[in-house]
Write a structure and sequence with these properties.
single chain, about 475 residues, mainly alpha, 3 domains, two-stranded parallel ribbon, 22 helices, globular
């Protein structure tokens, strides 16, 4: 099929579209079998464009079916660092974070290194008779490969340590300076890959709370890695971080290092890197909050809640002294976020206020007649007003629920007073409508109802009953 389409000198995009249509008629089982066959074929036959086109065309069906992925050599090789992988890292490299984009340049580098022969041997096992090795055979194949790869990487780093030219060449070979930092961490992780895989096997794929059993598992893993490679022991809490849905819970693992898990201990051990990661999470929420548009109020709420959850979680698990290093950094994050929220609250309050201009409600107002022409935008405007009111309510709720005081009560009071004036004007406009279109007044009523009910609750409901004439 591919041969017929490509021989017609069609652009690759058209070939993919034609294949996609053909694949829609295949059964789920046929799609899975075809995908597995293509995965195996493209490892032995050098025709990357051909097989990539087929896989691209299969992707819509695969997204629906979600079949188990084939345990390819590269995928299995990088399994020990699976929980450390991030996509599209923001900012500079942090320990415990390896960008996915660094993996294939590293693999390509390994194929030209002293580990090349071991890779070729491992690859031959994965391609033997066109089938996959049995699960119990996979680690037997991969253990010598990871050992050889780690050795080759450490040798390259040692040779380049005092040679600027070699260091630049190595960085260029693996994807640049940031990728070189990932290269260093990968070399370290691969040197303790057995211990990391053992830890992964004992943990749930995803969990929210650290239990006593988790602490015992962490203590055992710390000891095992410390015996093999002391400088790699920080990878234990980092691996936990990759699986925790409540990342601050990782601080409970400090008792796996010492029963006297104070904040000072955290900042003087490998847990310092964990604290840095938690601070990074807070700063990421701040950055994404700041980058969101005013009309993306739902997104603002998501980042607001996430920041408060992380900050409150850290404070709950490990009481922080304000004068300490970690305490100062947390306080700096909180104060900066409070300033961001205060600025945003003022802007959103102004938007709500200006979305329902009092002048439009004056009888025989030319502004009111003109405003009727803008009614096609009403649904979008009402949704924005509703979402912004939700944001203001959520800020107020979280401010009172936590020890994070965002100081927005005065702004909300001023907005409520302004909306109350709109209600009075709208009540009069309904009774002395003049040339104002009734549907325009109904639209303004809907927006007032949306904002006022959310901000004032039951009091607003009672007030709104008196606005429209019965």
């Amino acid at each position: 099929m591919y041969k017929e389409l490509s021989s017609a000198e069609m652009p690759m995009r058209n070939v993919i579209n034609a294949l996609t249509l053909k694949f829609q008629n295949l059964s789920d089982d046929d799609v899975v079998r075809l995908t597995h066959a293509v995965e195996l074929e493209r490892r032995t036959v050098k025709a990357p464009d051909k097989w990539q086109a087929v896989l691209t065309a299969l992707r819509p069906r695969l997204n629906d079916i979600r079949p188990p992925r084939i345990p390819s050599l590269t995928r299995q090789f990088f399994m020990p660092v699976e929980d450390l992988l991030v996509t599209g890292r923001r900012g500079t490299k942090r320990l415990g974070q390896i960008d996915r984009s660094s993996l294939m340049p590293l693999w390509n580098w390994l194929q030209t290194s002293s580990a090349a022969q071991v890779i070729e041997t491992a690859q031959s096992h994965f391609l033997k008779d066109g089938s996959q090795p049995r699960p119990e055979e996979i680690e037997t194949i991969l253990q010598p490969l990871r050992k050889a790869a780690s050795g080759a990487m450490f040798r390259a780093l040692n040779e380049a340590e005092n040679d600027t030219r070699k260091l630049r060449h190595l960085a260029a070979s693996v994807g640049g300076p940031q990728a070189l930092e990932d290269f260093k961490e990968l070399a370290l992780a691969l040197s303790v890959s057995d211990q990391l895989l053992g830890l992964q096997a004992q943990l749930e794929a995803s969990f929210s709370n650290v239990t006593d059993q988790h602490i015992e598992i962490a203590r055992s893993s710390f000891y095992a890695i410390d015996q093999a490679k002391p400088e790699a022991s920080y990878l234990v809490p980092m691996l936990f971080l990759g699986r925790l849905t409540q990342p601050w819970e990782v601080l409970r693992l400090a008792s796996a290092v010492s029963r006297l898990h104070t904040e000072e201990l955290l900042m003087s051990t490998d847990f310092r890197f964990v604290c840095d990661r938690l601070l990074d999470l807070l700063r990421d929420e701040q950055t994404q909050f700041d980058e969101a548009q005013d009309t993306q109020a739902r997104k603002l709420i998501v980042h607001l809640r996430s920041f408060v959850d992380i900050y409150s979680g850290i404070s709950h698990v490990m009481p922080i002294k304000k004068q300490s290093e970690l305490g100062r950094q947390l306080l700096e994050c909180r104060n900066k976020f409070a300033d961001q929220i205060a600025t945003r609250v003022k802007r959103l309050s102004r938007f709500i206020d200006e979305s329902i201009p009092e002048a439009y409600m004056a009888p025989d107002s030319s502004d009111a007649r003109a405003s009727a022409l803008e009614l096609p935008n009403f649904a979008e405007l009402t949704e924005n007003v509703s979402a912004m009111a939700d944001f203001l309510v959520e800020v107020s709720r979280l401010s009172h629920r936590t020890n994070l005081y965002f100081g927005i009560d005065q702004d909300v009071r001023h907005l409520n007073a302004a909306l109350d004036k709109r209600l009075i004007a709208l009540t009069l406009a309904y009774r002395q409508r003049g040339s104002i279109p009734k549907d325009a007044l109904d639209h303004y009523y809907t927006m007032l109802e949306t904002a006022f009910c959310k901000l004032s609750g039951s009091e607003a409901v009672d007030r709104l009953k008196t606005v429209k004439p019965s």
